[in-house]
């Protein structure tokens, strides 16, 4: 069992290189969803004045920051990576206590944050443009990149290290200054990332951090005219508001939102592999990944075999406090999240799906102190049901039977989302059809739907994204503008 330190520190805002108290005395407590008696820390309930101060500091710092060479900016990110690496165990533990994912997952995510910082540190030395032949033989024409200016970063609670880092690292590498508004439910973890950036010695004002509610601080970022770009990850409901607000005043925006991700299991699939990947993709992190498998579409020839194996393994899953060794699945991240999941389970039953595993809140052996829901499987799900259409963001799998792979692909596409999808098959034509026809930004063959590599572009189609991409080389498209240069001697 990991050792938990009782930590009730109040984390301040980080503005212009200093940790300062918000202008209001109000703070909010970050509660451990595995044990509501454990307060992980407190954060400021900041006001618009606090935010405006942070934006002003970022604005002031941006010019000098963008005038540094890419290599100089990259060096700060290398130092931040070292600072984060030295705190993997501690920050991993904070993450587990704050939003519930298991400690190995939390440490793995923090290590990924380190790798992302190093990747974008290297971006400072990579090419930023192309030479394009001019029709004028005496001229040189080329493209270069210019940063947006001040970037507002709004992040969700489910990847409290990786997402802030995969947004802030490229923003900084390409010469922008940043104001981060983290999810309230994971703001203590986010404060610790900012501490690592501070330790790297970034010039004051280049990174700023303001906690507070989405409706005050998030909305303030959308409206502040000194912010040139807003990068948002979260639900599609809020994302739509962010996009509309940014568009209304001509700011650049990027929205990365939810998913309703399918796995298709063909009759020629390796069934054991597909079962394991469905469980891992659907239920790890308590199903609270945007790329989590939610719909499981299986060929009728192998349906019963697949279902039997799946349910047997789901019933073996050990649920509990993610700090304890041997625990495979932690709690929902908050009471609200748990209530949402339970209401979707009720809806599934009401609409005629058959509950074949789980379905309840867990309240025995100390689990009543937290927000635990059993890993849940529904059978006989049809595409018109709510649980087949809406993002649940919890440990719930919906099994759907199809007669052939073509019907499976049509069903997989029959949702408004298009983030990630997988297929399990040994047939190359099935693979090729899936890669070609699946409406999702991330398509994976014989691998779980929830797998993202930091060096590859990531983003969705349809309602899952503003059709932008983040991570890898794609990040430069959002965090810079192309400038076409024509020079004549
Ligand atoms: P959320 O409720 O939309 O919140 C996301 C962020 O927006 C939080 O920082 C939140 O602040 C802030 N916010 C809330 N109201 C706002 C407003 N009116 N204006 C501006 N900002 C506002 O989402 P979540 O529950 O944190 O995260 C889960 C969702 O994120 C799921 O839908 C999941 O699929 C999606 N997600 C997508 C990806 C991807 O890359 N596509 C990755 C991870 C998660 P508060 O916390 O203070 O409310």
From TrEMBL:
<dbReference type="InterPro" id="IPR029510">
    <property type="entry name" value="Ald_DH_CS_GLU"/>
</dbReference>
<dbReference type="GO" id="GO:0016620">
    <property type="term" value="F:oxidoreductase activity, acting on the aldehyde or oxo group of donors, NAD or NADP as acceptor"/>
</dbReference>
<feature type="domain" description="Aldehyde dehydrogenase">
    <location>
        <begin position="19"/>
        <end position="485"/>
    </location>
</feature>
<comment type="similarity">
    <text>Belongs to the aldehyde dehydrogenase family.</text>
</comment>
<dbReference type="InterPro" id="IPR016163">
    <property type="entry name" value="Ald_DH_C"/>
</dbReference>
<dbReference type="InterPro" id="IPR016160">
    <property type="entry name" value="Ald_DH_CS_CYS"/>
</dbReference>
<keyword id="KW-0560">Oxidoreductase</keyword>
<dbReference type="InterPro" id="IPR015590">
    <property type="entry name" value="Aldehyde_DH_dom"/>
</dbReference>
<protein>
    <submittedName>
        <fullName>Aldehyde dehydrogenase family protein</fullName>
    </submittedName>
</protein>
<dbReference type="InterPro" id="IPR016161">
    <property type="entry name" value="Ald_DH/histidinol_DH"/>
</dbReference>
<feature type="active site">
    <location>
        <position position="256"/>
    </location>
</feature>
<dbReference type="InterPro" id="IPR016162">
    <property type="entry name" value="Ald_DH_N"/>
</dbReference>
<dbReference type="InterPro" id="IPR054869">
    <property type="entry name" value="AlphKGSA_gudD"/>
</dbReference>
<dbReference type="Pfam" id="PF00171">
    <property type="entry name" value="Aldedh"/>
</dbReference>
């Amino acid at each position: 069992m990991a050792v938990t330190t009782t930590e009730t520190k109040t984390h301040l805002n980080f503005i212009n290189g200093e940790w300062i108290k918000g202008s209001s005395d109000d703070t909010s407590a970050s509660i451990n969803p595995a044990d509501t008696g454990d307060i992980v820390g407190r954060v400021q309930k900041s006001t618009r004045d606090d935010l405006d101060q942070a934006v002003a500091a970022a604005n002031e710092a941006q010019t000098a920051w963008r005038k540094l060479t890419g290599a100089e900016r990259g060096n700060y990110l290398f130092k931040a990576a070292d600072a984060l690496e030295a705190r993997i165990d501690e920050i991993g533990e904070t993450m587990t206590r704050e939003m519930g994912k298991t400690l190995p997952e939390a440490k793995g995510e923090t290590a990924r944050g380190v790798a992302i910082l190093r990747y974008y540190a290297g971006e400072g030395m990579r090419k930023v443009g192309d030479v394009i032949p001019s029709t004028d033989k005496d001229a040189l024409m080329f493209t270069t990149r210019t940063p947006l200016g001040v970037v507002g970063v709004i992040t969700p609670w489910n990847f409290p290290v990786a997402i802030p880092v995969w947004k802030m690292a490229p923003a900084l590498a390409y010469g922008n200054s940043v104001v981060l508004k983290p999810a309230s439910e994971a703001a203590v973890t986010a404060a610790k990332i900012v501490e690592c950036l501070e330790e790297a010695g970034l010039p004051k004002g280049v990174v700023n951090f303001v906690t507070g509610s989405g409706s005050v601080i998030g909305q303030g970022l959308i409206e502040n005219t000194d912010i040139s770009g807003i990068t948002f990850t979260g639900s599609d409901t809020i994302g739509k508001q962010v996009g509309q607000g940014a568009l209304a005043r001509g700011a650049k925006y990027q929205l990365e939102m939810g998913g309703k991700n399918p796995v298709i299991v063909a009759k020629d699939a390796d069934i054991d592999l597909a079962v394991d990947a469905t469980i891992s993709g659907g239920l790890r992190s308590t199903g609270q990944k945007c790329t989590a498998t939610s719909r499981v579409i299986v060929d009728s020839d192998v349906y019963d075999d697949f279902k039997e194996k799946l349910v047997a393994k789901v019933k073996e899953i050990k649920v509990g406090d993610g700090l304890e060794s041997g625990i495979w699945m932690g709690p929902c991240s908050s009471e609200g999240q748990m209530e949402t999941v339970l209401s979707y389970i009720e809806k599934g039953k009401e609409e005629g799906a058959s509950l074949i595993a789980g379905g309840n809140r867990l309240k025995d052996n100390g689990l009543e102190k937290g927000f635990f829901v059993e890993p849940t499987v529904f059978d006989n799900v049809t595409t018109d049901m709510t649980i087949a259409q809406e993002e649940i963001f919890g440990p719930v799998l919906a099994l759907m039977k199809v007669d052939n792979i073509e019907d499976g692909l049509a069903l997989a596409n029959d949702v408004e989302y298009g983030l990630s999808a997988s297929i399990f098959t040994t047939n190359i034509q099935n693979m090729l059809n899936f890669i070609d026809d699946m409406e999702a930004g991330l398509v994976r063959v014989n691998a779980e739907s929830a797998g993202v590599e930091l060096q590859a572009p990531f983003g969705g189609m349809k309602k899952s994204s503003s059709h932008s991409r983040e991570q890898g080389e794609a990040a430069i498209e959002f965090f810079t503008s192309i400038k076409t240069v024509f020079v004549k001697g």
